[in-house]
Structures are given as C-alpha cells and as structure tokens.
Amino acid sequence: MEIYQQAKEFITKCYTEIKQVEKIESRLIEIENELKESGHYEHTAIELEHGAKMAWRNSNKCIGRLFWSSLRVIDAREKTSEEEVYQAIKEHIKFATNDGRIIPTITIFAPKVQGNQQFRLWNHQLIRYAGYEQ
C-alpha cells in the first residue's frame, strides 16, 4: 500500500512541524480506513494548508520560497461547477494581487479521483511574475 506509506510520511512530518504530534496515530487510522473504503483519502484543512506551505518551502528552484510561511491557502475543493471555479479564480486574483501589494496565495481545487476529472486549468500560473506597463 504505497499510498498509505506516502501518507504516513507526510502526516508524521506535517503534524510534527505544527506541533500536534498527539494527532498522528488517530489520523493515520482514519486515513487507513478511508483508503480501504474508497482507495483514496482527503486531506483535512490543516493538512492542505501546511502541505502547500511545505511544498513551496521545498521547491528548490523558486526564489520566492523564502516566504513559504506567509502563503495564504484558499481551500476551494467544494467548488463543483464551472461558474464556481471561475468565480474562485477571479477571487484568487483579486485577493492575491491586493491592489498591487502581492499576497503569496494558492487556491486549491478538488483533485481528480478515480477517473472523475471535473476541471482542468491549462495555465500552471494564472499570472506570471511582475509585469508592468512602464
């Protein structure tokens, strides 16, 4: 069960870093049960947020990773229609650009689960690095 081993590694690191070690064992039991039941598991909001921050922090090629702890994570996994996803993207851009005072932000949508892919965003970044008219 490779997924479980990867989950165990992530959960252990995540909850250790956020100083909630006492939750590791019970969370791993929940994950194991979810995997047996459905073949996948869903991250909690805490795991999603800290996991995104960990990913940015460990991204060797990104100079911006120095600001990993300030990353704002928007959980949009419940967005199910094209209109909801579109609105979430617009809200992301408005929030992250913050009238020119950039806020490091990621909006996370639901993953593809068992062949059910609802949406695909073709751009890996909605807006690239600073672009100015002058």
From TrEMBL:
Domain Nitric oxide synthase (NOS): 2-134
Entry annotated with the keyword Coiled coil: no
InterPro entries recorded: NOS, NOS_dom_1, NOS_N, NOS_N_sf
Keyword Iron: yes
Gene3D superfamilies reported in the protein's UniProt record: Nitric Oxide Synthase, Chain A, domain 1
UniProt keyword list: Heme, Iron, Metal-binding, Oxidoreductase
Entry-linked PANTHER family: NITRIC OXIDE SYNTHASE, NITRIC OXIDE SYNTHASE OXYGENASE
Name this protein carries in UniProt: Nitric oxide synthase oxygenase domain/subunit
Organismal lineage: Bacteria, Bacillati, Bacillota, Bacilli, Bacillales
